[in-house]
Records
---
Amino acid sequence: MFYFRENMLKTALISVLLFILLAPVHSGAASGEDCRFRFSLGTEPPTLDPSLATDGTSILVIENLMEGLTQFDQNLLPVPAVAKKWEVSKDGKTWLFYLREDVHWSDGKKVTADDFEYSWKRLLNPETASEYAYFLYDLENAEAYNQKKISGQESVGVKALSPFLLRVRLVKPVVYFPSLTAFSGTVPLRRDLIEKYGDHWTDPEKMVVNGPYRLKEWRHEYKLTLEKNRAYYGGEVLCGTVEAFIINERSTALTLYETGSLDMVFLTPEAIPSYRNDREYVNQPLLRGYYYGFNTRVPPFNDSRVRRAFSMAIDRSELPRILSGGEVPAKSWIPPGMFAHDPSIGLDFNPMEAARQLAEAGYPGGKRFPSVRLAFNTDAVNGLVAENIQAQIKRNLNITLSLDNMEWKVYLKKLQLDTPAVFRLSWGADYPDPDNFMNLFITGGGNNHTGWGNPRYDRLISEAAADPDPASRRSKYGEAQKILTETDAAIIPLFFSAQNLLVRRNVHGFIPNAMELFSFKTVWKGDQER
Amino acid sequence: MKHRSLYLSGIFLLALLFATAAGPSVSPYTFDQQDPSALLQPPSAAHWMGTDRLGRDLFTRVLAGGRLSISIGLFSAVTALVIGVLYGGAAGYGSDRTDQILMRGLDIVFALPDILLIILMMVVLGRGLLGIFLALTLVSWVTVARLVRGEVLRLKEYDFVAAAGALGAGDSAVFFRHILPNIVGPLIVTLSYRIPAAILAESTLSFIGLGLAPPAASWGILANEGWSGMRFYPYLIFFPSLFIFLTILSLNTLGDRLRDMFDPRGGPECWD
Amino acid sequence: MILFLARRVLISLPVLLVIATITFFLLFLVPGGPFDREKKLPPEIEANINAKYHLDLPVWKQYLFYMSGLASGDLGPSYKYPGRSVNEILHDTFPVSMKLGLASFFVAISAGLAFGILAASFHGRWVDRAAMLLSSGGLSLPGFVLGSGLIFLFSIKLRLLPPALWEGWRYMVLPSLTLGLGAAAYIARLVRSSLLDISFHEFVRTARAKGLPESRVLLKHMLRNSISPVLTVSGPLLAGLVTGSFVVEYLFSIPGMGRYFITAVTNRDYPLIMGVTLVYAVVIVAANIIVDGLYAVVDPRVARR
């Protein structure tokens, strides 16, 4: 009909434009070659540089890009990765790692012991300013080098004896050392590329990796795309592409999962009750402690009485109720499932004693208490917990905390540079040994943001790490925990976390574990359902 | 037919004004009163619109939010009106050169979308009540200025103006006593459009996190708080959104009717 | 014709320059520098940053530096995404906003034309009233309300469409509906009113007098002439959609320019704020010029002026 002619032209023009400009359609999933595994990251990873990463999000991605000397198996025991075998000397202080000779970087070069030596020294290099430098303090001269007490790196206890032989010298025996070498901070690095590209070496086009995936694309605030690394020594992975979407709202992520756009999602506390009986539901208790730390450098929290008052004013049993994810209330620091866990340690809920301590410190009934902020990074769980704690403190101590929340990246910076009075953090095990939890709070530790230090605590931790006798080790950690959570109350442990996920039935090979390791190399999507 | 929509809008607005003015005081709850035992409750007899994640009564908060949102809308629109009248009057009444200088400059900067300018200004002025008030005002007055200038230019030609001038009245006297009363109609119409525009802008900005911030409670902030819980607690976003929508609709309808009344020349919006 | 367009382009350049200058100085007025958050930077690092971003130069020098960069098309480095330039970021995000804008434009024009024609054809009857009521509603409905409502219905309750992201055509439906329906309300009114105006116009009466059937009269003649007002607003409409998309991009987590604009504002990433503002200004100016050009094609008298 005639009247369409004018409209037709216009519509046609527009349609053509649209057609040209529309991107090719991405369908969600397929199996085998076209396999795309899609999940959500709650926040943008602050960095993909292994020497600088301190947070779970960054490490999650890095673990799929890089591999170190060892890796964890399903039982969280260290097994060979780049190193095919290792030996330890009789005195327990010297380790020899024999590297596989067939491990290549994604650009074709071979991974050598030099790459490890370079990486470990970089972690310790004071100029790198890595917060995890202390992780390798067991190495000879490592602490001195990192603290600038000596200047050269040559004396640090790691050396590449030959291209495929790495020797490590420790200051004291560390039985679980092969667990340390599975940590992302100890993966090998390419000196030539880092020196050439500086800060940009982790850009998608430039980053060279030795792990199962390589970084194909990074659209900031939107998604990271990982693609299988054809040079990976373990062979090509089963699922060729992994897409990590950065979705700030967890409920949006859940809806995306329900409408078929994601293959795995973390559940918010509100959603858990509805999915508890679903076949796609996965619950995994974690070696992860959630705590509030104090900035002990400035009043009012430089007074341990105030800190103890706060700890005793909180009834932690309220938390599992509002979180409903299988969280375990905690007043001690070492999590259940880990050696030396002791639920009897810690300050019990005792509002009267709390009020008394507060009064003794000079703030009877909460009067004259300065206004303080409780800071946390934006997240559904953090918000709920913060609001609950705020209400409890108000109720039991008559003190009003104000809440301050921000994006994770910004929050991390704030912790470093302008530590809030009360801040929220959680710590997940890097290796399944209490040392990893306890040495967080040694004086001056890179991940210790409280500014608190106690020489007796430091000594206990150091002795316990080298102590071969389990009973004596246990009592040392017990005493140390008492100092941390009772006498000095530098932190308020709140609960031990659990992971609550939904995983699609056609996703296979996904192995949840207590250390939240997400290894996608075993994952594949099939037509059959689990 | 025409009048029915006018009456409906009028009644709704009056009821709303009354409710937001008196409501928060009459309600048994305050807008920031937390009740940990009644978190995230759906609407019930005790809480007509339910409670939010801190146990605050949503009905009270919506009323209090209305107070804030409407005041911001009202005051920024009125202030913009005053500034616009003065500026437009100066441009229209002054010499050609004054007019050119005053208006051309505006055209350039205000070619950009309103909301963009508001955001840019908030970067400079900072988030918070004063910031958003100033930003909204600064963007609104241009429309008024253009209108006033147009009208002044038109009315300038009339005899009564020349007569007043001949009788010895100064420029500003002529403007305020003769011209201004004749443009009151269009001004009222403009005002009744600027207010909902301001309310819309404030609630949109607060919703995306660039406007006001908690613990202040405007409708936009309430909508933002409800947005994250929309999946499980849709009433949290539903009620503030409903009020924003009805208020803007009523004000726009009012504006339409007022314009029909003051501008009988009709035009495209004449319904029948 | 070409001269006409060229003249328009030339006039627009100083406009853009003024906008750039005003925005630059506006941002300069903001208390505290862009790196203010990092309060306790060690002096050497702070000096490095200042030198790198030229923050230690006097204002007018920084301005000149920026302007000369602009002349060569370089919008500067982003302050908050180290290693990425504003050009790069815009290069990735502008096409997304453009696509969203076009899709919404399509929705606006189709729905607007449909409803407008419907209302005018059944003028005075309930269809007309209903359409106008809807249109009123559409004009008063904030974008975030419509968007969240659509998400609630189609994603959460019906599980038909995704609530966020930008990974294929399914993801475009709700965002373009959200953005386009508001504009559709406006277009519907426009179409209806211009059709009703014409219905009293001479030649339509003539056509009727000729005895042509009612429907053909309405659709053929009237439409042709009412395309004009729609055409006039198309340019600014499309520009408005492309530049006004940030609420929708926020709601639906779409990686477009608007969303980065919001993040840039929160992060005080000044070069990015400037870059986006400038792109928006260019889009608006370009849209206006194109519409003028199209209008000149339809009505050649315009170009001869």
Note: Residues 171-207 of chain B form the longest helix (37 residues).
---
Amino acid sequence: MRSKAPRTGADDWTQTIRPKRHWWDLRLGELWNARELVALFVWRDFVSLYKQTILGPLWYVVQPLLTTIVFTIIFGRIAKLSTDGMPQFLFYMAGTVVWSYFSTCLTKTSQTFIANANVFGKVYFPRMAVPLSVVLSTMIGFLIQFLLFCGFVVYYMVTGTAVQPNAYALLLPVLVLLMAGLGLGFGVIVSALTTRYRDLQYLVVFGTQLAMYLTPIVYPLSSVHGKLHLLVLANPMTSIVETFRKGFLGVGDARWTMLAYTAVFTVVLLLVGSLLFNRVERTFMDTV
Amino acid sequence: MSAETVISVEAVSKKYRLGMISSGTLHEDLSRGWARLRGKPDPRMKIGGHGSGFDEAGLLWALRDVDLHAERGEVLGVIGRNGAGKSTLLKILSRVTAPSSGQVKLKGRLASLLEVGTGFHPELTGRDNIYLNGAILGMSRREVTRRFDEIVQFAEVEEFVDTPVKRYSSGMYVRLAFAVAAHIDPDILLVDEVLAVGDAAFQRKCIGRMGAVASEGRTVLVVSHNMATIDSLCTRCILIERGSVAGDGQPAAVIRQYLEAADAAVEGEASLVEHEHRLPGMSSYLTRVRLLNADGQVTSTYVQGAQIVVEIAYDASECALPLAGAGIIVTGASGARVGGFNTYMAQAPPHAVPQAGVIRFTIKGPCFAPGAFWVTVSLGTHPRNLVDKVEHALGFSVLPRDIYETGYLLTPEDGVVAFSCEVEYDPAAGLV
């Protein structure tokens, strides 16, 4: 054998690959170095969406519009659920826009390992770059939908409806950040688990649909009482939806304590998610 | 130049536990657990290729205590049979998967090329994909911009840079993909079999590029089944067998060692009873195909000029019509048909062969060029009526030999057969 002992000192090595690394070693520096890659992924997702369909980004507009119309008819006209005195259309649209960002983040990031198995099996880069880029590229869609929503708010204001956007609206960046964090956190946890149990993929789609009813999307928080009220309050998305409505429509249950709860929840969730993701990404290729 | 170790693989092992392989759904896990409870074999167990096996504890050792050191500027070839652990080694080095024990130390930036075009997006233009693929492979935007023209030129796609790659021909696609990878400028480059792509001219270019990378003081690690490439490109070669380093040294010597070991194995034989390449509508009359050398031993590797015997076994006693003939076709790795022979050629009509038995075809000529080849076998009841045909039933490889006795060794780029030519020089004629 020609193998010989390395002549250089151990400190000269730029990289050491070991079977396991500490569970808290998230290699955030590596992720930071991959920021250009994240940017390119975001841009790829956006551009490819443009090119593949005729309607392209118009889908961003059609989807919330149709959902809102359906909600208005079913929950507003037929079920006559309370909307805290807000125009039903605006009320449902606010909920739809917010919820669709969260649920898209969640479902898309939950497919990280499965959808990228091919690339992950061939080249290494910080895997977290993929879910991060998904959350960011989904944000573009959210912004388009948000602008649409703003257009309707302005329309209702001009036509003299009692819609009162206020200072709470300035919390929007915080809300978006929290939603992104929640979507990413849940999605990453599911993606780590789907490498072992594919069934979860279906559960996620189904689960987010059901979870919407545990969130004040088609009803205001004020209309829920008793034990159910506590259950809805425990949902970290609740404060985001309510604060969003408060800020842009003027009606909603915006409480700092609830927002703080959501923030803590998000941080813990992200931490758990990253740790789990981190564990899985090392040996993921052996399980597919 | 003083030797400096840039890759140090220390006692690396990689094992796969039974349960870790091909786990898909909760249901599968449950059925596996249930089978284990009843003491039955795992219904989902995946069996590895040659040279692999599960030990008593239900562990598959893809790599076992591998020690390996590579120095700056070396072009290290890694050879071994399918499933021997070559790809696992590459995956560990490129961090796609983690080792089970041991450690790997690297010096400098590493880029792995386990596949060309990883992450290419069909909707994006060539330009966009160069940036995207570059980023995936670890290049910064600035680096890509700096080498952009070189990449495009190397790939020969200048006019199509702003065309979506989905409109590219497969050749262009592959060229572009390789071009990006070839310009990463890593300190260590890992390459897996990608040389098997593109046309001969481009392959030559790729090999040249890898040689250039090495001469710049970078280290290249190539995994290939193409012995001619390994021989001409590498400065050192490693043989991996059953997850361990079985040979290490001069490429020619290690290749010889590999071939001798390969000769001892039963690779030159395939059962055709259920073969994935049987053409649709065919009956399973062909049962086995074997490749033999001049001494009648089963083999799958021949030195150029050696006699190749293709032996087919079949049983068509259930066939309503009498068999009339059997044939073989040899194709090159690129898919080009080299030629073939059948019993209709061997004897004048009326055509007839036994309804069951063994037929041996001894290929006396032409002399194949080095490379990989496939044998297709068939049976018919009439020259125009096939009853069974298995395409690419079995592969063999031909190794270079100094057949011209001039020291010029042919490579797969020289074609699929070796010409035998006489050259005449007539200096006076050109002056007229």
Note: The radius of gyration of chain B is 25 Å.
